[in-house]
Amino acid sequence: MARKPQDEAICRLVADLYYDRHFSLKEIAEMTSMSIATISRLHHEARQRGIVKINVDLGIDENAHLGEQLKEYLGAEILVVPGDNTDLVRDSKTTGALAFRHIEKYIKEGMTIGWASGNTMFGLVNSINKLTHLRVNSVPLIGGWDILHPHLDSNLLASKAAEVLGGRSYNLMVPAKHDSIEQVEQAMQNPQVQATVEKWDNVDLALFSSGLPPEVDVYNYTVIRNVSEEIRQSAVDSGVVGDIMGHNFTIDGEIIDLDWTRLLVTIPMDKLLKIPNLIAVIAGAKKIPSLIGMARTGVTSLIITNAGVARGALKILAAEQRLTSSF
Q1: Model pTM?
Q2: What's the N-to-C CA distance of the chain in angstroms?
């Protein structure tokens, strides 16, 4: 029986986390939202399949052609890791964990990393092997206080990152989304908030994903799911396919200024663009248009995605090209 690409990818990830990054099977299960029994089986299969040798074979080269093809279409640097489109949360966490191996070369001693939030970012942070000698500081780039939705709590994420990277975390003790512009202005006048926001000028590396297209009905998964139906519909009508910490973009890469962005405590786009390295990690079938739009914005230094999203994006881009050629 032929091996399923997703099983192959997850086997590689489990082996990497267990052997090279020294996480226990229980920690890997919690990190990936899989059962310990499943992780144990994948761990065993990794040895049977010859994935575990002297070093862990992450299978990166086999997807290099996908990144090259996407670059030809989109003109952006895109790195493709193994993985397919199965479950949105699982895909996000595993792609984030796989992405770390390619992001760690950007992490330098004494630097400051700016973080978004979401399952992809938590998958990345939870997979970092301890590098406490680096003294790398972490700061949220979007409102961090979210008790009801822990995966959107950028303070928690920044604290976890600082712990394993040996630096300091700076808390942004306000929610991302507010009910009015006046509430946002009031929050930004808080001295503690101002002290953290000032750190945005010193960020060396920003790590983020894309929000889902606004028409996707996944309750409370991203910040836009917590706005009014009127605001969400305006985003749909404007052709929004994703957002960079609340900054909306279309599939053509146009960044659109919508009212709901002004309801957020988030880094302004002009400050974001001054950060030397901007890396996005995108996973999930619903975010295929988001990948295309993100690449076309020209904002990112690098986009990391999985093979399933990459193949889906190539199908859309090929169809666009055929349509253009027919006129």
Answers
A1: 0.84
A2: 45
